[in-house]
Amino acid sequence: MKRKTKLIHGGVRTDPLTGAVSIPIYQSSTFKQESVGVHNGFEYSRTGNPTRQALETLIAELESGKAGFAFSSGMAAITAVLMLFKSGDHIIFTDDVYGGTFRVVNKVLNRFGIQSSFIDTSNIEVIKNEIRTQTKAIFLETPTNPLLKVTDIKSIVDLAQRFQLMTIVDNTFATPYWQNPLELGVDVVLHSGTKYLGGHSDVVAGLVVAASEGLAQELHFIQNSTGSILGPHDSWLLIRGIKTLGVRMEEHEQNARTIVTFLDNHEKVKKVYYPGLDSHPQYQWVQKQMRGYGSMVSFELSDEINVDEFLKKLNYFTLAESLGAVESLISVPAKMTHASIPPERRKELGISDSLIRISIGLEDADDLIEDLDFSLKKDE
Ligand SMILES: *Cc1c(COP(=O)(O)O)cnc(C)c1O
Known about the structure:
Blueprint: H1 3-9, H2 50-62, E1 67-71, H3 74-82, E2 90-94, H4 99-108, E3 115-119, H5 124-130, E4 135-141, H6 153-162, E5 166-170, H7 175-178, E6 188-192, E7 206-210, H8 213-226, H9 232-243, H10 245-264, E8 269-273, H11 283-289, E9 296-301, H12 307-313, E10 318-319, E11 329-331, H13 343-349, E12 355-359, H14 365-375
Helix pairs in contact: 2-9
Bound molecules: pyridoxal-5'-phosphate.
């Protein structure tokens, strides 16, 4: 089955009970047992729910894994994965990971003795130097947020396997449509389903897929024990979103290409970050591991532009956190998504106050360009 077909016919195709083509929302907390322990595979919705299971089967198939798990948010998914580790374990992270990942590791999981290093994972030597006897895993985000840095997944998997380290990839930006880390040997892939997978800014969700049966069992145990599951209605919304992921990603990319060319040639834009630009520093890895580039673009405004005024003039780009939906969004990472990262650390990473991140939606590219062009003009 080709990828676009799998988005629509993967997972549980129709409801086994009624034949309903759209998997019903099984809004039930519990399920009747014929006699003690004899049931149709469902007992209690924290442990398993048919609508959630349809989504979990679908994402497992899309990521070529053994089993999928749906959580109440991307952060719940990330936290559950990090619960695979114990006090004293050390984990290596990509330095410009999602701000919430940095926060949960440094402000919550540190209380439970999880050790961490945040380093430039696009440099394999830097990773090698960071591996200690307590190191248990490498957690990658590629492309990263907001600087769209890319890590060579395959060579990190090779390194990790030599040191018997688990590899985890946050695949939110690329989506399973453009990148499949498990096919490169990664152990666990995760997503904020809130973004491209949902695609309509109407659901907060997280997904995890495990490559092995052992990890699948452990993750199910953690999901059921800690309980941050995705509800049936939100599971249904995510299934519905995923059906159109292919057409959306293709169209997002068309728009992104047009807008990147416009920004790259604009005198008020100092620098553009986009994995599809052949000037991208890791373009050769992008070509190797991604089939497409997404529609997340960051750019540095020239000093003459006042960021607040620029944002106020925009009409179609909504100032909001989040990304990957049909409507174009704009944000200032230093003040919004990455505000939880200390200013000195932001400076080291290159996340300046004039760095703008856009999530290019599915509006007509001409309208989006007109909007940006108007807002980049200085008031006379
Ligand atoms: C949004 C996001 C998360 C967190 O997901 P939530 O659904 O907001 O909890 C994690 N990683 C990346 C890359 C994200 O963009």
